[in-house]
Structures are given as C-alpha cells and as structure tokens.
C-alpha cells in the first residue's frame, strides 16, 4: 500500500519472510535492505554478517536494521560498516553501507 502511495511499486519489492530465508532464495542486488526482526531475536547480528557476504548488496546498498537497544549491533559486519545509528527509547535503527575500499 505504501509503495502504491509513493509510486514505487515498479522499483521496490516487499518480502515478508525471515531474513535468513531471504538470503537463501533471493538472487538480485538491492539498493536498500530493511530488516525489522522481532526485538528478542539475538541472532540478527549473524544474519547481518551473512548479508554482508551475500550477492544481495552492492557498493551502493544501504542496510537498515531496527532492533532493541538492549541488543546493540557491532559497528562492522564483514564489508558492512555502520553509517548511522539512532536510538528512540528501546528502539534503535542502525544503518550500514558497504565499506568503500580506496
């Protein structure tokens, strides 16, 4: 519905599946990956690590992870480096991008 309102239906896809499963079945690169796992899920760091080494992200990709502030994520996962982090009470939004090699 939001994609229709913003006229992005042709450019975006919503996959309502566990992130670990998405890593095994999706096969194209994405500009933005948004992950909103259940807050008690402490394995999200492992999934971000797998995503970092997957073919789903490229040099321009952003990975946005919403998670509990009680379970902080690392600043680096493979080639993904934390770009921004915003905390709102028990919610944290951490944004990663692929490290640019010079």
Mean pLDDT: 88
Please state how the strands of the largest beta sheet are arranged side by side.
1-2-5-4-3
Alpha-carbon distance between the two ends: 41 Å
Q: Provide the succession of SSEs.
A: HHEHEEEE
| Rounded Rg | 14 Å
Strand content: 25-35%
Oligomer state of the chains in this structure: single chain
DSSP summary: helix tally: 3
What's the number of extended β-strand segments? Answer: 5
Write structural notes for this entry.
This protein has 3 helices and 5 strands. With 102 residues, the protein is an alpha+beta fold. The protein has a 5-stranded mixed sheet. Strand 1, helix 3 and strand 2 form a beta-alpha-beta unit. The longest helix has 9 residues. The protein is globular and about 35 Å long. The mean pLDDT is 88.
Could you give a short description of this structure?
The protein is α+β, with helices and mostly antiparallel strands. Helices cover 20% and strands 29% of the residues. The protein is built from three helices and five strands.
Labels describing this entry:
alpha+beta; 102 residues; 20% helix; five-stranded mixed β-sheet
Write the layout of secondary structure elements.
Elements: H1 2-5, H2 19-25, E1 32-35, H3 44-52, E2 62-68, E3 76-77, E4 80-88, E5 91-98
Parallel strand pairs: 1-2
Antiparallel strand pairs: 2-5, 3-4, 4-5
